[in-house]
Design a protein that fits this description.
The protein is mostly beta strands and 122 residues long. 0% of the residues lie in helices and 52% in strands. It contains no helices and eleven strands. Strands 2, 4, 5, 6, 9, 10 and 11 form a seven-stranded mixed sheet that branches. Strands 1-3-8-7 form a four-stranded antiparallel sheet, with no helix packed on it. Strand 5 and strand 6 form a beta hairpin. The protein is globular, with a radius of gyration of 13 Å.
Amino acid sequence: VQLQASGGGSVQTGGSLRLSCVTSGRTFRRCAMGWFRQAPGKEREFVAGISWSGGTTMYSDSVKGRFTISKDNAENTVYLQMNSLKPEDTAVYYCAASEMAYDYVPPSYDYWGLGTQVTVSS
């Protein structure tokens, strides 16, 4: 599975961005997907995850209510809609995938894409 994230950019506080992650491979329908981020000098952290059916989602407390993860199996794409952005959301965002036997959001992922930079200015 190969992943390519896009959609990052620079916005002001309160703005919105939508990240996309296109995957290649025939098993996308059975992949749980996740978004992670890493800010300068900090460890990578979980942002959001979605089960392979899209029926289950999880969010970190810091983005809950502001970010929405969704999955389009027909387009082999996972999205992260980010609203009400804050300067502390500034980071490189990574998408990740894991082929799953069961429909839930896993704690770890097998495949990772290159990141896309999100910068939020005050």
